[in-house]
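Q: What would this chain look like folded?
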Amino acid sequence: MFAENFLKQWVIPPRIYEILSSGYVESKMILSAEERKILSKNSIFKDKYKGKRCFVIGNGPSLNKQDLTLLKGEITIVMNHFHLHPVLQVWQPTFWCLADSANCYTPEEITHVKEGMIGVNPEAFFIPICMKKLDEIEHIFPQGKTYFVKMALSPQY
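A: My prediction, written as structure tokens:
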């Protein structure tokens, strides 16, 4: 009881706690056999960097005020349009994740992302499984370095 109250009151924001305790996440994580097979390839990353620190870098104008060159040689996870950041001339992220789904991109944006990927060379790209077919058609991400994720929550959460 103490641990649950501690999490609820001090660690997890109230809305996130509400979503997690509602069972919503579990109910949405029913995977098809095909999805299980695709996602099982991600197991190569289990414990790969266990015990090491990692920096998750979001997006936004505030990044322009940060000296990201200090993260050279660190394990980093970058998001979405990070390919636009000039720090990529100094260091490459360990992982690049795309949280937007396929229906978030216009054909022009897909072309822009493809062009931006030329300068990005992480260990792996993680993209939503709903983008798999689009990626197979458009060849946005390198085949041998692309892995898929299934989002547990809708964007409104």
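Residues 2-11 form the longest helix (10 residues).
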